[in-house]
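Technical annex B. To support the medicinal chemistry partners, we prepared a structural model of the target in complex with S-adenosylmethionine, based solely on the information shown next.
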Amino acid sequence: MNLARRTMNHPALAAVYERAWRPALFYLASGRSTASDRRDAVRALRLSGDKKVLDIACGPGNFTRHLSESLSEGGFAVGVDYSEPMLARAVADNAGPRVGYLRGDARALPFADGAFDAVCCFGALYLIPDPLAATREMVRVLAPGGRIAITTSHRADNPFGHASRIVGGLSGLRVFDHETFPNLFRELGLVEIDQNVHRLLQYVSATRPA
Ligand SMILES: C[S@@+](CC[C@H](N)C(=O)[O-])C[C@H]1O[C@@H](n2cnc3c(N)ncnc32)[C@H](O)[C@@H]1O
């Protein structure tokens, strides 16, 4: 297990992740606040009503509960993560009437094809050993007409971007090209592909045709 994955599995990180680690590092990496990321996630996933939402690599549930709060009776959000310390924090800090958490691996999801109306994965694909297989799994469990949204690393074509790739490589974080996810989404038949880059992060969303 590389440094980045070991860090994510550590109880000390789980304890500070939502309040300190994520707001600080994601602000540095993207210039964006957690509140903006949450608001845009709800918009990108087009959440409302009784939709069923899957939050892959949910960490301490810092997005999962927020996403569930956009839903009404009958809707729910499920967070999946492999880290026990992160899931313990999710249950303690981000429980709610329409939220559930499950331990699992993003590369082999225990759900039927088309089971969810919206699927997301924020801040994790660069940690997962086979991120493209995990993305294919997300699309497999997405219902026709459903929305997918990811946030992950982006290779900037400047000295800062090259430095981030070296640091990323040493720590085990992967840095993705501009075209990797739009191309994969197109290959998987998704439409309405939208990509925004903020500093070192990319935000990509798409629709599975009805
Ligand atoms: C940086 S946290 C992201 C938490 C939250 N989604 C966010 O945006 O703040 C990354 C999470 O990915 C999880 N993770 C990494 N590889 C995974 C895998 N193969 N399957 C499930 N979860 C994984 C880690 O346990 C960690 O909780």
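Notes passed to the chemistry partners:
Residues 8, 22, 57-59, 62-63, 81-83, 86, 105-107, 122-124, 127-128 surround S-adenosylmethionine (CB under 6 Å).
The first strand starts at residue 52 and ends at 56.
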